[in-house]
Amino acid sequence: MKIPFLIGIGIIPGVTVAGIVSKYYQPNEVSGRWVFQGIDIRLERNLARKIMQTWGKKMSLKYKEENFPFLEEIYKKIVANYPVKLPGKLHFLRSDEFILNILPTGDAFISSGAIKDLDESGIANVIAHEFSHLKLFHAQEHIGYSRPITLLVAWMSRNNHHTTERLRTYLLNSRYNEQEETEAQELTKAYLAKTKYHETHYNCLRSAN
């Protein structure tokens, strides 16, 4: 009886670890590499909504927000091909600064300075590329905490405004590495293939800014 008991005891940690891995580690749909996702989609959208109440309002007040039907049409075509329905909207800011942020809610903050040298397909590529980073959860790979601390902070952020403010950095200021840029561009191709727009060299354009 001792051997089956010991085997059973040995299996329990393995099952526990497997459960944790299956919950917080997911394969990247482009490259297949396993990545840590400590923040689920629902919480990430809640974080985005709180960011909209603070950072988003400040951006709209600091810069002149305008209607830009040409950009709006491109944005809507890209969003229409996103696999999940997003409630956010486009926020076009009249500024020479390079501003390009797309939140998990679909709210996109794009400045005139970010698209001034791009044609129609170039703009579509920029938007689709950022949505690809969003879909692949690349920003979560740049959270400045260890993985256990990330899970703790994620849990705390549900009811703690201060923690939410600390977490917003990863959604607004991520700098992607070469592998993430390559993965995003591969997914971008799939989004653009469903539209009239063609692929451009977005990585080069981004690095130049």
UniProtKB/TrEMBL annotation:
<keyword id="KW-0378">Hydrolase</keyword>
<dbReference type="GO" id="GO:0006508">
    <property type="term" value="P:proteolysis"/>
</dbReference>
<dbReference type="GO" id="GO:0004222">
    <property type="term" value="F:metalloendopeptidase activity"/>
</dbReference>
<feature type="domain" description="Peptidase M48">
    <location>
        <begin position="73"/>
        <end position="198"/>
    </location>
</feature>
<dbReference type="GO" id="GO:0046872">
    <property type="term" value="F:metal ion binding"/>
</dbReference>
<keyword id="KW-0479">Metal-binding</keyword>
<dbReference type="InterPro" id="IPR001915">
    <property type="entry name" value="Peptidase_M48"/>
</dbReference>
<protein>
    <recommendedName>
        <fullName>Peptidase M48 domain-containing protein</fullName>
    </recommendedName>
</protein>
<keyword id="KW-0645">Protease</keyword>
<dbReference type="Pfam" id="PF01435">
    <property type="entry name" value="Peptidase_M48"/>
</dbReference>
<keyword id="KW-0482">Metalloprotease</keyword>
<comment type="similarity">
    <text>Belongs to the peptidase M48 family.</text>
</comment>
<keyword id="KW-0862">Zinc</keyword>
